[in-house]
Amino acid sequence: MLYIFIFVLFSVPKTVLSACDVCEQYSKTPTWQSINDKFEFGCPDGWQTFNRTRGTYCMKFFNASYPQYLAAAQCILSDGFLPGIESETEWTWIVSNVSAYLTANSITVGYVWVGGSRIPACSYNMSGSTWCLGANSNAFIWGDYYLTGPSTILDKYLTADNGGGGIQNSIILRVNVGVSASLDDLSSNLAEGSLSPTGYMCGKPADIIGLKPTCSTS
Question: Which InterPro entries does the entry link to (predicted)?
C-alpha cells in the first residue's frame, strides 16, 4: 500500500502539488493529508469529466480567437493542452457545446482548435505526395498523450482537403450548426481567406482531490 500511495502522489501534474504558496513561511516543507481518508480524481469547476482508458480526463471550451500556437499557450496557463478526441462521447459533447455557443451568438459556422496535426513526413510535402493530401487519417496525428490506440474519430470525421492551398498542417473542428461537424486542415497562422477561429478546446488529466496541504517546520 505504501508504494501505491507514493506512486499516486508523484504521478500527478506538479502544479497540483505546489502547496508552498499556502504556507505562511515558504521555508516550511509542504506535506499532504487525506480528507475523510479518501483520494479521488476530479476536474475543476467548469470542466467536463470523461472516463478515458488511461483515466479521468477533463475538457473545456474557450470562446476566444487565437492562432493555434497562442491557443495552445492559453491551455498551458490552465495546466492543459489542445486535446485529441478519443470517443464519440467526447465528440458529441464538444460539438454540442460549440453549437450552443454559436447559436447564442448568431453564428452559423464556427471553427475550434483541437490538438491534431499532419505527421512530420507530410508537414511540408503538400505538393509532392498525394498520400499526404486529402482526408487520409494516417497522415495526421493527435498530440494528446492521454489518448489510447488508433483514433476512430479521425477516420470518421476527417475531411481535410488542403482546400485553401499552401501549408495546412493543423487540425481544426468545423461546426455548421444543425448541419454538420467535421475535422478540417488549416494553417496554424489562419492563412485561409478571412477565416477566424471561434475558440479552442483545452484538455488535461484529472487532478487528485480529497487532499489538503499542511506545512511542517522541517
Answer: C-type_lectin-like/link_sf (IPR016186), CTDL_fold (IPR016187)
- Amino acid making up residue 95: V
DSSP string, 11-77: TS-GGGG--GGGSSSTTSEEEEEEBTTB-EEEPPTTPEEEEETTEEEEEEEE-----HHHHHHHHHH
Ramachandran angles phi, psi of 3, nearest 5°: -65, -40
Query: What single letter denotes the amino acid at residue 124?
Result: Y
Number of helical H runs and strand E runs in the chain: 4, 11
**Whole-number pLDDT of residue 97:** 96
Going by the DSSP 8-state scheme, the letter that residue 132 receives in this structure is G
Q: Supply the pLDDT for residue 37.
A: 55
In whole angstroms, give the CA distance from residue 172 to residue 185.
6
User: What SS3 state is found at 216?
Assistant: strand
Q: Span 17-46, mean pLDDT?
A: 53
> What are the pLDDT digits (tens) for 87-143?
999 999 999 999 999 999 999 999 999 999 888 888 766 555 667 776 778 888 898
CB-CB neighbours of 107 under 10 Å: 14
Pairing status of strand 109-118 against strand 199-205: parallel
What is the model's pLDDT at position 142? 92
Q: How far apart are CA 19 and CA 7, in angstroms?
A: 18
